[in-house]
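Checklist before submission:
- one chain only
- standard amino acids only
- sequence pasted in full

Submission:
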Amino acid sequence: AIEAVSAAGATAGSAGSTGSTGSSGATVATPGAPQLRRAIIVNVQRQPGANIIEVTDQIKQLLPQLRASMPQAIDVDVLADRTETVRASVHDVQFTLLLTIGLVVGVIYLFLGSVRATIIPGVAVPLSLIGTFGVMKLWGFSLDNLSLMALTISTGFVVDDAIVMVENVARFIERGEKPFQAAIHGAKQIGFTIVSLTVSLVAVLIPLLFMGGLVGRLFNEFAVTLAIAIVISAILSLTLTAMMCAWILKPHSEQKPGFLARGFERGFAAIGRFYDRTLKVVLRHQRTTLLVTLATVAATGLLAVHVPKGFFPVEDTGMIVGVTEAAPDVSFTKMMELQQRAAEAVLGDPDVATVSSFIGADGTNPTQNSGRLSIALVARDDRDADVTEIIARLRDKLDHVQGITVYLQPVQDLTVDARIARTQYQYTIEDPDPDELAAWAPRIVEELRRLPELRDVASDQQTAGLELHVAVDRDSAARLGITAQALDDTLYDAFGQRIVSTTFTQLNQYRIILELRPEDRENVDSLDRIYVRSTSGGAIPLSAFARLETRSVALAIAHQSQFPSVTLSFNTAPGVSLGEATEAIDGVVARLDPPPAMRAEFQGAAAVFRESLASQPFLILAALLTVYIVLGVLYESYIHPITILSTLPSAGVGAILALELTGKPFDVISLIGIVLLIGIVKKNAIMMIDFALEAEREQQMSPEESIYQACLLRFRPIMMTTMAALLGAIPLALGSGTGAELRRPL
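Returned file contents:
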């Protein structure tokens, strides 16, 4: 959640949210002190179930007390605060929500041409949202990006029931009935339709509640929030909206639409006449229309296969994490120098606010030749470039820093990775035979680096480390009176940082560490000047009874499922989706034909992506099947649900083409949008089918005549609800604020 920094000019520091082993060092640079300083970094993370905003606010309240209790030479600053982007994102969604409500109310006014009629659904929207907040509070939900996104998209849904009710009552008023009587007749006629709309729309969301894995847990609250808003909207429409129609609407003779409403009505009437003519053509050529529908189904399937597949959109959270890597045989001092040069190169970018730099082996840095950079960017509103552009710019600068490689990736709010990696995605190779694994891993890495779909391909296999062995001639050592314990004590005193004493003062305690001077610890030749105390009391040089051997060793050996493993990390190239990248990797590995005992699989986000990709068709099929069953029960028919669902292919083509034209991959957020689309487009068919069935029963019309009249009669409410849903989504699609990357595909 927050990183607090304590720094002093000459104070040595160690860092890490977990305990560090071996030598370690951290430096920071903040706006108040742009030069890198030694520091102790305290990473604070909230407990499960705690609110991130409340935790951060409480920490900030404690900082003045911490500063007052520390020496003046020590500065305590906030290095990175992740809640700043959370607050900004929530603020942007709140603005989007208000804008959406305004657009929806404006559409209603244009279609109804009356301020009084506009007030009724205009009241239903905030009341539905307020009721949703109440239920969310009872269920322990919080306002976050996902729940606010659900509320924003629900604006186009919750107003539909009120629109249908108001439009139907207004139609009876136009026939000459008084508002009260029209409200009774209109509510009675449209009540079943509203129930059908609500139940079927909630049914669409049911499969989202049963999505497995982490993705399912993420969107459970989204689906529940949306379902709550829809149910509350239906209840309000059947009660409050009908009552307001009876008391607020005027008789038709007293209505005086304004200039704007009259102009819109003339234009809409022309559209209605055009629709009438084209509808007759379609009804006369039913076989051709059916063939077009089947072709649309085929086109939907082809587009669904062709569209690039992704996982989650890359968010601009204002944070970048960098993993640094030097040569396997690099010394700690040299690594500090290289790390500092990399951090200074990053600091030179105008969009970088703070940098923290850390080296030394610990829980996240597995080897001594690796380090981390935590980069906080300036606020999103204060910079023109997004995080991907900044990373590309930083890569160009860091390529000129010789001796160290820096892998950069943006920090994401929605992440499924449980490991620290150089890049966003991982691919692990396992083999019971370590030698076979060591031979094959470099070949696979080399082939992957040639793929144009990948960037920053790296391996955690590091076998070129250097290890110095002291080979003791036991006969010579015994003759000189050198014991193994004496040799071990001497080497530990020189290189092991032995604590030999502790000095106490009134305010603190200081450990006295025995070791060689830094310049003597950095050179192998210093071992020639090491003397070991013999049993006779003499000082014997190490070279008299031992020789030094330098060997190549692996810095670390990773295991996966109890087998030796090598993890390959990669990013996708600009404009390449994760689905295209994983397919390219599968093709390379299949072409290389590795040994049968070798097993390779994706890890982290790439693995979860593969799982979600495999379950996507089943999720969409489950949504369709659920809606079919619910509609079949409501209409007591096997045929009518098929008629209602027949509008989906054309909507699917439009959705996938929208992704293709905007260059967006079909990701998890897009999948949620497709599921919601099923609910949107079937509402139009339900309104037509209900009135057609009523005309068949009560007026003895033929099926063709009844659906023709139903289409013309429901053309206005269908256009109203469609425009409301469209304008409810436009602010999300065009949004550019913090967190907009996550909301835009929906």
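Reviewer check: The first strand starts at residue 2 and ends at 7.
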